[in-house]
Inverse folding.
């Protein structure tokens, strides 16, 4: 009962956004439901911010509902495919993460940007956007303003990626009959899980691929998300060394580790075992459809949290840093895929 009182209104608002966005996404698949939800959320955000009763539910949707969506996606995936995709994309993931961190460090020194802003944008760009920022911020003792500024920059390029990348994939010649190239591209070149799912869902809708691209992109993204652990622990170690204290002792692995990945893997195991025993794949279709709707809900919540005015007022340097990381990651992902003959 307390849960409903606290989160009910915000969740209902996100559902109200998701229903028309899902319908529009099916009518205009080149844009897709997730993108419609993001844009609608951004448009009505100034009005919703006055409704404090919705805030908790919007937060819950943007974080928990998205994780539930990813878990449900696991019921549509075979574990053998998950392992193969992760192994295949690992070289690209390592190169894109390294590229973003190097760019953020170089520009941090060149533009004399604050340490925390540079770290948060670099880590957010290279791993998983808002989740990486949320995990890193307490370790480096970033304040609320630094966190808000970094997340605003990351979300800007998340939204641009969700809008631009499907068209970019078509222009540069990705196969439209397979999810292989674009799925890996989305999973390695887009910052946040929310926009990975938005871009991949749009590609599926454009070329009638069901959820093949979404499955592959999310699997690659989850592999990439694991980098939160070593990078966050490394930053904690460096902070502790700099402060001559035991800052690493304050790290909570429960907060750092993305436990929903374990449930995703568990769902994949269930599907793998069930299909090997003769259970038809159609049994899991309702769960996959529910996961897509949850994704649209989460996109609406992300849009509601995007403050365009604050982003513009925050200054040019953080946006330029985010842009540089974004372009670097995109270029390296495409180059690596080409060298590996994936497109």
């Amino acid at each position: 009962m307390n849960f409903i009182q606290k989160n009910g209104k915000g969740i209902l608002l996100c559902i109200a956004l998701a229903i028309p966005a899902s319908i529009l996404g099916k009518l205009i698949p080149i844009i897709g439901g997730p993108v419609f939800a993001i844009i609608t959320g951004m448009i009505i955000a100034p009005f919703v911010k006055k409704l404090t009763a919705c805030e908790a539910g919007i937060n819950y949707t943007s974080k928990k509902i998205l994780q539930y969506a990813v878990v449900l996606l696991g019921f549509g995936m075979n574990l053998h495919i998950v392992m193969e995709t992760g192994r295949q994309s690992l070289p690209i993931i390592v190169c894109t993460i390294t590229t973003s961190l190097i760019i953020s460090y170089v520009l941090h020194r060149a533009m004399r940007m604050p340490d925390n802003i540079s770290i948060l944008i670099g880590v957010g760009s290279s791993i998983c956007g808002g989740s990486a920022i949320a995990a890193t911020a307490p370790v480096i003792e970033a304040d609320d303003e630094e966190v808000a500024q970094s997340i605003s920059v990351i979300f800007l390029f998340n939204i641009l990626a969700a809008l631009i990348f499907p068209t970019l994939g078509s222009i540069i010649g990705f196969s439209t009959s397979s999810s292989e190239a674009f799925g890996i591209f989305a999973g390695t070149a887009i910052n946040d899980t929310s926009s990975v799912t938005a871009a991949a869902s749009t590609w599926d809708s454009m070329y009638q691929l069901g959820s093949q691209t979404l499955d592959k992109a999310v699997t690659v993204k989850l592999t990439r998300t694991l980098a939160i652990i070593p990078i966050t622990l490394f930053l904690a170690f460096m902070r502790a060394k700099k402060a001559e204290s035991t800052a690493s002792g304050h790290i909570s692995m429960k907060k750092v580790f993305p436990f929903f990945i374990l449930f995703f893997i568990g769902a994949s195991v269930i599907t793998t075992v069930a299909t090997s025993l003769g259970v038809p794949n159609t049994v899991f279709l309702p769960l996959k459809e529910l996961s897509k709707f949850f994704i649209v809900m989460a996109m609406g919540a992300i849009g509601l949290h995007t403050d365009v005015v604050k982003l513009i007022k925050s200054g040019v340097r953080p946006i330029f840093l985010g842009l540089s990381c974004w372009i670097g990651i995109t270029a390296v992902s495409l180059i690596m895929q080409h060298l590996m003959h994936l497109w």
Observations:
- DSSP finds 16 helices and no strands in the chain.
